[in-house]
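[job 0412] stage=fold_complex status=start
inputs:
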Amino acid sequence: MTPVLAATASEQAELIVFVVLAPLAVVTALGMVLTRNAVYSALLLVVNFFCLAGFYVLLEAQFVAAVQVIVYAGAIMVLFLFVLMLLGIGKEEAVQETIRGQRPAAVLLTLGLLVAIVGALLAGVFDAAPASLAAANEGGNTQAVGRILFTRYTFAFETAGVLLVVAAVGALVLGKRQP
Amino acid sequence: MRVGPGAYLLLSAILFGIGVTGVLIRRNAIVVFMCVELMLNAVNLSFITFAKTNGSLDGQVLAFFVMVVAAAEVVVGLGILVAIFRKRSSTSVDDINLLKG
Amino acid sequence: MTAVLNATGATRLIWLLPVLPLAGFAVNVLFGQRLRALAGWIATLAVAAAFAIAVAALFELLSLPGEERTQILRGYEWFSSGDLRVAFDLRWDPLSATMALVVTGVSSLIHLYSIGYMEHDARRETFFSWLNLFVASMLVLVLAQNFVVMFLGWEGVGLCSYLLVGFWFNRRLLVVNPRGRLVDGEPDDTHEVWAPPAAKKAFLANRIGDVGFLLAMFLIFATTGSLDFDVVFGEAGALAAGTVTAIALLLFLACTGKSAQFPLYVWLPDAMAGPTPVSALIHAATMVTAGVFLVARTHTLFEASGTAQTVVVLVGAGTALLAAVIAIGQDDIKKILAFSTVSQLGYMFIGVGLGPIGYVAGMFHLVTHAFFKAQLFLGAGSVMHGNDEDTDIKHFGGLRRAMPITFWTTMAAWAAIIGVPLTAGFYSKDQVLAALFEHGGVGRLAWVAGVLTAGLTAFYMSRYVFLTFFGERRWPEGRHPHESPPSMTVPLIVLALLALVAGFSLSTFTGEGGRLQSFLEPVLGAPEEHESLAAAVGLSAVATGVAAAGAVVAWLLYIRPFDWLALRRRHATAWRALADGLYVNQVYEFFTVNMGGAFAAFLARNVDQRGIDGAVNGVAELVGNAARSGRRLQSGLVRSYALAVLGGAVLIVAFLVFRP
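[job 0412] stage=fold_complex status=done
writing structure:
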């Protein structure tokens, strides 16, 4: 078989979805960073999160995809929007950069980081054959995750719970108006 | 031609870079926070990718926990931001420069 | 070679020679305030007693046969360091005996004179204490048996010279202005000077010479391992030619300082700011002769180096001529005598620089010069004393009737110095000139200079006596010149007599077989050949003729009515140059004060201010700048810090990824 396109149908489908979602993710991310209006940034980020959820599905992590949509896009971003509205978004950010050389330095360093990471990737990850998660996902992804979560990562799970409680209390305390 | 893990990792790196640039460039504190979230998500993506590569679910669990912590962090962080900016009525990050020497 | 004995008989008392004046010094320092007028008598007594002891020790010496006339008195040890042992050993031989007698004898007379001269001075007890200290130092110098003790005396006389020249430190003194208008009576005819600068100049010029002495001592010790005279002179022949020349030249440098030869003679004319007895004692008879004595004492070293001897002779001859020329242009009587001293010292150095032929000639001239120069200075002091302390020769004239004793004694000394036959100066000067002529080579050249100097000496000394004592009176109204009291005139008479008779009593015409010659021969060696009587007469005739010519010229100019002031005005520039010492002082001043000042200013600005301060301040500025730059890192801005974090992260990742 001439592997002009994907070998199998699922791989073909994966390719198409990736090719659609990846640029969208990048564009929304860029848009989030570059737009001056803060609310636009938040909304663009929501779209970005949806793209990421799509990627998770492609990677056979359906549970995490669902959590991504529910928690990240549905709760955290909503929280962001609440705060944005609370603080008032009257004035837009000035375009002029106050710190001299910040922008060029930022871009340069980011590119450097990317180069370093690409260098690491070129070391051999590109041709690693992806194993299938079929065996691990026996009984469905959610059940498999749950199985591991409550056996191997019980302690972390419980601690995460404590963390959430602390966060809630903290938010309450911080949010109180000082008399 | 299929989509290998390399592509996902490259995408993750790109998103991470964009997030970093955003943290350095933007002056609105909340937007900076959102860029941090973007960075976290990029890392999540690479965790999931590696989970698929290794054929085990540990990466996914880790990504799950990252989300939990991110949530807690956002809650507390936004609470702090609100507390600060109630006093100053300016959302610019440059205005917090008490450590200036 | 003379045998060296330990002191016997009266010689054992020679330690008293320096100690008695030292005791006089101590007494006057401690009790001078209460002693008042008595201080002078105590000082004189101390020196006279020293003279008596010297005479006694002389007889002791004469009782010994000629070859054994060297006696050492071992004294207390001063210090010993390693192999070097220095003690206060005293040496009594014909040379030191001669010097000791001259020093104590002339000093006693001058002390006596000072009693009258300093009668009205409020600080006279200090004066006498320092005079005694001076005599003590001079005797230490003369009696020393090693270089270190001699240097002690050397420095001591330099110190006393400083103290005594600057004695009137709080008094403005009037001296003749060398650059004054040539019509007398005009305002800047005289100007005021202070004594301290002259004292400092004397001390500094001496100091430069002392460096030579010290370096010579270092060299001597380095090459021979000892500083004792007998040891060093014994080894003189074994030293390398260059070393001996260096040592001799360094010692001669010390002599040019102490004995006012070129180039270090400039302090002597200025030292006339001191009281006249000081000029007579220190700057005519004793301290300045220390240099001549040094060369005579270390003659073995000079003999080992022909170069050094030539230098001594040439410098002596040159200085004699130069000083004689400058003396013509002086109107200040003390300055005339000062330059005359420099000139006569030149003669002495010619003598001792020639080698065995000339040692005795030089020493003889030293002795006779002590007599007539001391007399001339004391006479000048007497003239000043009777003329309201005026020193300007233009204000004298016809003083012989007002001050007869001063006049006659000064004429006696005048005869001696110009070399009138049968006077002391005649014998000694002719002996020097004859020895010079016999020496040949550079000696002939120096002989010409010596004869010319004799003529010039006659000229200016005649000018001095003619303008002072002859002619019509030129002193201002209201002044009554009078003779000095006996305490001052008695020493004048004694010295004048000595100036007349010392010549033929100590020497013979041809220099051989004279009393002084044979006395000093054991120490200084005998000349290899003696000139014939005919040659001696011939040379003497030449010298005397030239001197006579000089005196006649002076007579023509100054005794017969002649407008010498108009002559002076016609040649104003030349006269001023002569009067100002041919501008030698100005040249020195340029090199020392101006260039020294410029160098100091350069150092102060560039090295100290810009260099050192700059370095120190620069370090501070560097630190400040570094801190200021470092401070900019602390901007307080989160985004800058974030940038830094990212930078660090990139570095670490890159390192981990691209690790070699």
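[job 0412] summary: Chain C has a mean pLDDT of 85.
[job 0412] exit 0
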